[in-house]
Design a protein that fits this description.
Blueprint: H1 11-33, E1 38-42, E2 53-57, E3 75-76, E4 86-90, E5 110-118, H2 126-141, E6 145-150, H3 161-170, E7 186-192, E8 197-204, E9 213-218, E10 221-225, H4 227-235, H5 240-246
Parallel strand pairs: 5-6
Antiparallel strand pairs: 1-2, 2-5, 3-10, 4-8, 6-7, 7-8, 9-10
Helix pairs in contact: 1-4, 2-3
Length: 254
């Protein structure tokens, strides 16, 4: 199924889609994609946060916060690198190398990865973009991996896209350091936390199918998240009126 132009509808319509898509992704992860000892939960607090799906690991106590999850399960990067067209590594600043602190969920289990879908509200103000960047970088600083899906083109507050925002801060640059292809303005971003920080980026155009993307559970292991399959399942529930708007068959609701 081709990706739709979500700028044709207001933010509330995408919010409804976003909410259901998160549930589809959580279910897919918990139905066998994650290795034993890992599980996914939908985020349980409000606000402008990078995280929408939390991936947790059950096997670490408070005294084992610096240990990595076991290497059983997942795809080894050395054997099968993620299939994306753009990759880059960044040596993080010394302040970002404090990896002895484990982020924990209320369950007490260690948070190892976050999956976020960017909403229009995260890009509509410079302050919201800054909040997104701060939370994303804070997670990477303590070894939490990220997968970010941005279904909206760059705007005035993220001219290099949300990936460009993060990369600019990682490189501590005052200049824009990343250009989004004009013909493929939507961005999928996988980040493997570590030293160096490794980034796997894919761009796509409206009308293209989604690419499955890596969600890292260790710096050297990942799983492929079925973005296309879960997007299709979610889209089937969109009201017919709004499907017609998204597909260009009804311009009255745009």
């Amino acid at each position: 199924m081709p990706v739709h132009d979500w700028t044709r509808v207001d933010a509330g319509i995408f919010h409804d889609f976003h909410t259901v898509w998160i549930g589809e992704l959580r279910t897919a992860l918990n139905e066998g994609l994650l290795p034993a000892g890992f599980y996914a939960l939908a985020e349980q607090h409000a606000g402008h946060s990078v995280a929408d799906v939390l991936t947790l690991h059950t096997g670490q106590s408070a005294g084992e916060s610096a240990r990595l999850p076991p290497d059983a399960g997942g795809i080894a990067v050395a054997e099968a690198p993620p299939r994306v067209r753009r990759t880059e590594s960044v040596e993080q600043a010394p302040a970002t190398r404090r990896r002895t602190v484990a982020i924990r969920h209320v369950s007490g289990h260690r948070l190892v990865a976050l999956l976020g879908i960017v909403s229009p509200a995260k890009k509509d103000r410079a302050r919201h973009v800054e909040e997104f960047a701060a939370k994303a970088l804070s997670a990477l600083d303590v070894g939490v991996h990220l997968l970010v899906v941005d279904m909206f083109p760059p705007g005035p507050h993220d001219p290099g896209g949300m990936h460009g925002v993060l990369l600019q801060r990682l490189k501590e640059s005052d200049e824009q350091v990343y250009d989004v292809p004009e013909d493929e303005p939507l961005t999928l971003m996988g980040y493997a936390a570590g030293v160096p920080l490794r980034m796997y980026v894919e761009h796509l155009a409206v009308g293209s199918p989604l690419t499955d993307m890596p969600l890292f559970i260790r710096p050297d292991r990942y799983i492929n998240v079925p973005l296309e399959r879960t997007y299709q399942a979610t889209y089937r529930g969109v009201p017919s009126y709004w499907r017609e708007v998204l597909e260009g068959r009804n311009t009255n609701g745009a």
